[in-house]
Design a protein that fits this description.
- The chain has about 210 residues and is α/β, with parallel strands linked by helices.
- The protein contains ten helices and five strands.
- Strands 2-3-1-4-5 form a five-stranded parallel β-sheet, sandwiched between helices.
- Helix 3 runs antiparallel to helix 5 and helix 4 packs across helix 5.
- The relative contact order is 0.20.
């Protein structure tokens, strides 16, 4: 099935774009949501995380204590690597399972660290970046989460730069500070239509030559 890799920095608006694409019929597979489910109370990652990091990493509700993990993972790269060693195989398996069940004109893999991972270029037909300037990212994340500027900037520093993301992009949806929701939705819908057309032609080609 024709596939899109959708990415963007924190606060870029990629989740909103993904929600619209799902509304319009695309099969959306969101690795952030998968990770959230895995680390929710009773999630498949909770046992391995408790074993790897101890009870302090698990909140009173039985979910991963994200504040604890954020603090330790950004302070110590070995903690981040251990976290990735636990989560990435579980996420990859869930992504494969969802991809096999996907129905729609095309699939969208929402991957915040798509560029950083270096593993997605050959797994998708096109990479789409939802793009905005770093200062807008900071303001948006502060408004929705209450995180400090320092924390947000440390998160951003662990992600690919804006230049690196744009260099990897086949398609770009601009969502800077001057973009309102109607404009953003229109830009996303234009690409949705283009991807539907490409997916249809790709399927026709397989039918013709298969």
């Amino acid at each position: 099935m024709f596939s899109i890799g959708l990415t963007g920095g924190i606060g870029s608006g990629k989740s909103m774009v993904a929600d619209w694409l799902a509304e319009w019929g695309a099969a959306v597979i969101d690795t952030d949501r998968i990770a959230h489910d895995l680390t929710a109370p009773g999630g498949a990652a909770i046992g391995p995380l408790r074993e790897a990091f101890g009870a302090a990493a698990i909140g009173p509700d039985g979910a991963l204590d994200r504040g604890w993990m954020r603090t330790h993972a950004f302070a110590d790269p070995t903690v981040r690597r251990r976290l990735e060693a636990v989560l990435h195989p579980l996420i990859d398996q869930a992504v494969r399972d969802q991809a096999q069940r996907a129905r729609g004109p095309y699939r969208v893999f929402v991957v915040p660290l798509l560029v950083e991972s270096g593993r997605w270029r050959d797994r998708v037909d096109r990479i789409c970046v939802v793009d905005c300037d770093p200062e807008t990212q900071v303001r948006r994340v502060q408004a929705r989460s209450g995180l400090t500027r320092d924390t947000i900037e440390r998160i951003m520093s662990a992600q690919a730069s804006r230049t690196e993301r744009l260099a990897a992009a086949d398609d770009v949806i601009s969502n800077d500070d001057s973009t309102d929701l109607d404009v953003l939705r229109r830009r996303a819908f234009q690409l949705h239509q283009a991807w539907c057309d490409r997916a249809s032609r790709s399927a026709d080609g397989r039918t013709t030559h298969g």
